[in-house]
Amino acid sequence: MAIVTPERPDALAPEQPLNVPARFLRRPTGYTPGLWGWMTTVDHKKIGIMYSVTAFVFFLIGGLEALLLRIQLGGPDQTFLRADTYNQLFTMHGTTMIFLVIMPLSAGLANYLLPLMIGARDVAFPRINAFGFWVFLLGGLFMYSSFFLGGAPNGGWFGYVPLTRNMPGHNIDYWVFGLQILGIASLSGAVNLIVTVINMRAPGMSLMRMPIFVWMSLVAQFLLLFAIPVITVALFLLSFDRLFSTNFFNVAAGSDPLLWQHLFWMFGHPEVYILILPAMGIVSEVLPVFSRKPLFGYQVMVFSGIAIGFMGWGVWAHHMFATGLGPVAVSAFSASTMFIAVPTGVKIFNWISTLWKGKLTFPTPMLFAIGFVAMFTIGGLSGVTHGVVPGDTQQTDTYYIVAHFHYVLFGGSMFGLFAGAYYWYPKFAGRMLDERLGKIHFWLMFIGFNMTFGPFHILGLQGMPRRVYTYPEDMGWDMWNMVSTIGSFIIALSILTFIINIIKNRKPQEVGDDPWDARTLEWSIPSPPPEYNFKEVPLVTSRDELWHRKYTEDEDGRSVRREVTLGQEKMAGTEVEPSPAEGHEAPDHMEGDHTDGEGHPDGESHDEEQEPHIHMPSPSYWPLVSALFLPVISYGMIYKTWAVAILGGVGIFGSLYAWALEPATAPEDTPVHGPDTSGDDLEAVPV
Amino acid sequence: MTDTAVTASAGSHTEIEPAHPPTSTGLSNEKVAMWSFLGSECLLFGALISTYLLFKGQSTPGSIEPADVFDIPYTSVSSFVLLMSSLTMVLALAAIQRGDLRLTRIWLLTTALLGASFVAGQAYEFTVFVREGMNLRVNLFSSSFFVLTGFHGAHVTIGVLMLLSLYTLSLRGKLPASKAETVELVGLYWHFVDVVWIVIFTLIYLIP
Amino acid sequence: MRRNCRLAALSATLFLFLAGCAEDAPQDFLKPQGPVARQIDKLMDPVFIVAGVVFLLVQGLILVAVIKFRSKPESPEPEQIHGNTRLEVGWTLAPALILLAVAVPTIATIFDLAQKPENAVNVTVIGHQFWWEYRYDDLGVVTANELRMPVGRPVELTLNSDDVIHSYWIPALAGKMDVVPGRSNRMHLIADAPGDYLGQCSEFCGESHANMRAKAIAMAPRDFDAWVAGQRAGAVTAAPGTPAEEGSTLFAQKGCGGCHTVAGVSEGVLGPDLTHFATRTTFAGSIFANNDANLRTWLRDPQAAKPGNKMIIPGAPLTPDEITKLIAYLNSLR
Predict the structure, then answer these.
(1) pLDDT per residue over B130-139, tens digit each?
(2) What ipTM does the predicted assembly reach?
(3) pTM for this one?
(4) How far apart (Å, rounded) are the C-alpha atoms in residues A150 and A227?
(5) Is B180 contained in some domain?
(6) Are A200 and B24 in contact (CB < 8 Å)?
(7) Which structural domain range is residue B109 located in?
(8) Which of A93, B180, C95, C222 yields a CA-CA distance of 20 to 30 A from C129?
């Protein structure tokens, strides 16, 4: 069989007749190049990249919205934004950052990394994986289309009734249906990743040997699995009230508006742990690598993550302390809120202990990881002060709360995600980001972040409420608002630095498999990885499997580099050559003991260790096609054009049907094996 | 070393590979996926049922209430029909596991027809309610009742469609004994929908 | 790296000190002006101190670690420590005990503040988009925008909403309580001394949420009684031939009475009761001081002044002369 080269991308493709229309409808093969290749890919790595890039674009949009808000609030009585414009922008800023940035960035990283970290070749259901991405993209576009179709959602990201029930216009409808669409993406992703982690671990990878990022993502996926249905119900009830005049939130009919709040926060509180746990997992991966010692208290870190997952279901009404629930309920939730600080605090101490007595270096990922620990501590402490209910009756709905959640979501989640971006960028892209620019990014962001959100604590304590489009000049709030606005532009500058870094470093480099001397399996394969991830499924014998392959310990427990990295002993006698420029492995690295150099036998010569073929699932357009019908249904429902809605419904059923009957791997798709597997490697990098 | 190559969704694997490579739990990916999905469905119906129960007795006094419209004997019969459909579902699974494809088809079709009867019965019941002056918008009870049972009915309908698809596939020879797990998974879904109905019937219809 | 860390630590400390020396902020709740707010503040003081200590401890440990264990060329590979059970138990139990120590007084305070006070002035507060209505049912007084209260005596507020969820908050006097349609929540305020206590709606309630402010005016008991007496009186009739009298005619002609009650004149309930409008220091959800210039701005175009508010003048637009007369009429409603 010929080896695929860039000049002959279809070398391994089956005979394809040249009539173009039929080719469009024919199922794409593993070697589909270009845009259509990306649109039909089911490769978890490509999907992870698409999730991350799309989420980053939404981050820029959400950030722009924030800058506009800060300009308006930079001084008292400003008229830069009208009241309704401000209300749309703060609603969309929150909705965007939560649903269109942090969640998909976490999903993108999990998508890319979880199979690699557990030694699998892909996720359990690759087409559902692709479906999740397209649904996310279309859901975000759908929600943003509202800006051009009468106005964006303006009821806050939390959409309290009865305000949102009776709001005229379609702004709220876009919010409701947009979130429903996004919920489908999250739920499908959750099922997929849960099955992947539970069921597809490499031999020897017991649960307690999994990298901690896998654990934290797994807990987050379980939270999604159970939390999304609750907001789904809440959103259905609200949409039925708005579309069909049902009575779920109709006060005149006897409904209690607090029902919405209970349903929303029963989703909403697990949601914040969904937002933070993956970032905590990232920090737990990065700190050990740049301390050159293992994560302190791995088991405790796992169990505290699980504990947070469970306890997170018991604190939701702490978002409702001022709603008049009565002293008994409020006391119970106060206690549960305070006690969830225990497993959270435990993590902070374990991270510090990971640093302690380590040998610390400070490349950019490490700066962000340490920044996470410092900033999240602040957010966590202010959170504990909210748990003291009488204090919260002063603090709630003020900028003090806004300070808290920005410290945990930006200083926490975003710092963690940036740590992950810098840490894993070499793996995804096959090139390093510039360290100097990275440090500039970190320090600008650290200073800008604290300058923007630090003053919010003070403003809140001085009585400035949330969600106000303006404030008068004799309230004493002028100076800190101005400081905050300046800080927000410093943040913008820092992000610009990040973008410049990415653009400046787009030429392929020779990065190698393991530029950081890291501890987990994703660093045992090329950068970027081949489509099939692992040539041979790894056999796992310990936690931090890669570290133990590279290092043994002396009598003091210090690491000593092995002469030959374990797992390559089979290759003894084979020259272990450095990877050629594009990050491919040299042809000598073959499965099993074959040392006959170039080319591959036809899959017929095996020893008992070699696998005959590596079957990768084939690309498919059904995930994209199915996803397209979701906005169609939504537009039809919003504008009460039932024909359109029904068309969308029929369309999605038909697509799902065709998808279900399509085999995972197309029979005519040839298997992948060996290096130089596809032109995919050239498209593996986005910019 | 075994190859844990990706096994993906229901669909024919090529002749090259065995049906399912080994998984960490020994259960197939599809089965773990179905159980996970049903777990999330518990929360979906839980939220809807909770809403109904929270609204119980809160409707405007004098407006329509359960005692005015519920016909317990009628709904008991349709509940029985649904319950029997779970039995026939089990029989369908047993048949395909034994390799008796003809009997599989019979039981699959029967299950689908019983499910369809249940939905038809509910639809008829709803038209009676509407005629008696109870529609979606009348009060808290009517809104929450119709939405809860409507969601359940939609789930049953999707189940019926899945069963009919299996039936059709079987007719075309595409559902051999080796595909028994597909029937088992649809069965899991079907039984879940049935259990949800038992909960709804008990909490909404039977308990005053 | 070290220099940067020191700089960061220094600026953080400076920042905290600056926070204490902030300029005067009328809605600052760290300066309570009544026993309820003071009870909350007293509970929070030790909590903030504990939080501050933990903050310094954690950030300190991070700084020490980052400085002390940074890689030097001669430093060996670190020992691969996996954990320490005793430490884990310690830093699980210690925070748990601290939190328990916080939880106990917290719950005690929750129950204490939930008690209805004795000898209270009872006021029903009704939240509207975007103004507060106050009904002193025992005293037969209806007013808007300003809650007048006697010093040193509890004011028991029953909170109802006419439309969406609002939240009633006077920071110097008490924590906030949501105002939820279909429910009646309660809270109480007590002011130490006479004066103005500012607050605002603290639950997003629509376009002009930012413009729904609140003001409590505490008065010496005798002054409060005098105020009550004045409010119970009927509406002042404007003397004939005055601009105020022409204004009262316009009030009827332009449809104002359809929304506003003036005792004995009109019975509108959509907007604030105006019977004693001239006795109020603010209007329009307390965003404007009650003076002629502001009244003119308001009457010329209420929507421009307060976007999304519910006041649509049926007889709009008003000519400047009509506005002058209406202002005269409003000023006469003492």
Answers:
(1) 999 999 999 9
(2) 0.93
(3) 0.91
(4) 31
(5) yes
(6) yes
(7) 27-206
(8) A93
